[in-house]
Design goal:
15% of the residues lie in helices and 50% in strands. The protein has one helix spanning 56-72, and strands at residues 2-3, 10-17, 21-25, 31-35, 45-55, 76-78, 87-100, 103-112. The protein is elongated. The relative contact order is 0.25. By secondary structure, the chain is mainly beta. Strands 1-6-7-8-5-2 form a 6-stranded mixed sheet, covered by helices on one side. A two-stranded antiparallel sheet has the order 3-4. The longest helix is centred in the middle third of the chain and has 17 residues, at 56-72.
Length: 116
């Protein structure tokens, strides 16, 4: 299990909730909502991170790490800012921009996953 590099993101950090539910809508408009999975796994979090004005070395470290996870399809551990414990994530998309010489910014979306 890989652990995300210890490079703090810039603020603000966006945190979203994505409860796992299914809704059945009947002809009369009545809705029945069903939750799936264990209670502690029914509301995965999604974080939008930005690392601004990183050195080329730090931006390459993050990009290399995310590229490796894309190649091995493995999740990784990370403790987001203001969270009390480590969580497991996948990162399906990220971007790197170079606004200044020798400085780069990375944007990434981390999706919480539940694995043993």
């Amino acid at each position: 299990m890989a652990t995300f590099p210890n490079i703090d993101p810039s603020y603000p950090v966006e945190k979203k909730s994505a409860p796992i539910t299914r809704t059945v809508v009947f002809a009369d408009g009545y809705q029945h909502r069903i939750t799936f999975g264990l209670p502690q796994h029914q509301n995965p979090k999604i974080f939008a991170f930005v690392w601004k004005n990183l050195s080329e070395t730090d931006s390459d470290t993050i990009e290399t790490f995310l590229d490796a996870r894309a190649n091995d399809n493995d999740s990784f551990d990370y403790t987001p800012p203001n969270e009390s414990s480590s969580m497991k994530f996948v990162c399906r998309k990220w971007s790197k921009s170079m606004e200044f010489s020798n400085l780069a910014s990375i944007r990434a979306t981390f999706e919480e996953v539940f694995e043993p």
